[in-house]
Design brief:
Layout (H helix, E strand, L loop, with lengths): L2 E4 L9 H14 L3 E5 L10 H10 L2 E4 L5 H7 L7 E4 L4 H4 L4
């Protein structure tokens, strides 16, 4: 079953009302959504905004840091080839420099 991978910075943050509606519909439809960000998993204060949004919505956060988002999803136990990716920087999915 496909799942949705949602980027945070400049994706969710660019249109939170639209993505909140999508997240509600995904929950109704039983579609899993995870957030994957190129941020590093730093202390809570550095990532307060992403932690709060995901906690409020019950979403898992995957931090890829300098690795590709594809690799980070694999390491978290997901099959990235089954994902529907929503990201403003698709190159980050494969770890290409932007």
């Amino acid at each position: 079953m496909p799942f949705i991978v949602l980027d945070f910075d400049e994706t969710y943050t660019a249109c939170p009302a639209i993505f909140n509606a999508m997240l509600r519909e995904a929950e109704i439809q039983g579609t899993e959504v995870v957030v994957c960000t190129a941020r590093n998993n730093r202390p809570h204060d550095d990532n307060r905004d992403v932690f709060e949004m995901c906690k409020d919505k019950g979403l898992e956060i995957i931090f890829s840091g300098s690795d590709s988002k594809w690799k980070a999803l694999q390491q978290a136990g997901y099959l990235p080839e089954n994902a529907i990716w929503i990201d403003d920087t698709p190159r980050a999915i494969e770890g290409l420099k932007w």
